[in-house]
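Figure S7 source data.
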Amino acid sequence: MKKSKISLKKEFLDKIYELFNKAKSVKNPDDYVRKARRLAMKVNTPIPKELKRRYCKHCYSYFSSGNYRVRTRNGMVVYYCLNCKKYSKFIMHK
Ligand SMILES: [Zn+2]
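Tokens for the predicted zinc ion complex:
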């Protein structure tokens, strides 16, 4: 039983990656972020770190060209969301 739960999470994770990949090329990427978050919540699994930095953690808008500013500071990447005017900080990839 435990095994099937894990494979379900894996399946959802694949869907989440797929949604984020699609979000790059659609007009309404925010919807894809929301869908991905709903899926993650359903199976109680966190959104992978590399995907988390692709959207604003406050208003969940997908960071696409023109709706955010990015800068690095003390090993952190700071995204400034132009939609909600808030900052999202992430630890830089090594
Ligand atoms: Zn925002």
